[in-house]
Design a protein that fits this description.
- By secondary structure, the chain is mainly beta.
- It has strands at about 5, 10-15, 20-25, 35-40, 45-50, 60, 70-75, 80-85, 90-100, 115, 120-124.
Length: about 120
């Protein structure tokens, strides 16, 4: 049994910050990598950031570099996405996902487990 639950989304003004959480439970020992994705209305799901489950390798989409940071609390099997300098174009539903087979990749099909998502809305 695997469950991923995102939290921390909300409404924030442009330039503000949010920290998203992804709490994982069940079979975490099978996890290879996690990824953060987002999907805005009318758009396809896109990669935001990824990290090996054990740490050591982190990657960011160009849109996230310099603004977003992935961190973790291994004791609680929780991964965070700190988002600074938010822009209206960051508005989307944000999802965390886990791959049991691959290193971090922007390809959504590589991820086996997905959380239900958390809404982030950035106003101007």
């Amino acid at each position: 049994q695997v469950q991923l639950v995102e939290s921390g989304g909300g409404l924030v003004q442009a330039g503000g910050s949010l920290r998203l959480s992804c709490a994982a439970s069940g079979r975490t020992w099978t996890f290879r990598a996690m990824g953060w994705f987002r999907q805005a209305p009318g758009k396809k799901r896109e990669f935001v950031a990824g990290q090996t489950w054990s740490g050591g390798m982190t990657s960011y989409a160009d849109s996230a570099k310099g603004r977003f940071t992935v961190s973790r609390d291994n004791a609680r099997s929780t991964v965070y996405l700190l988002m600074n300098s938010l822009k209206p174009e960051d508005t989307a539903v944000y999802y965390c996902a886990v791959s049991t087979d691959s290193d971090p990749t922007p390809i959504s099909d590589a991820y086996r487990y997905w959380g239900p998502g958390t809404q982030v809305t950035v106003s101007s």
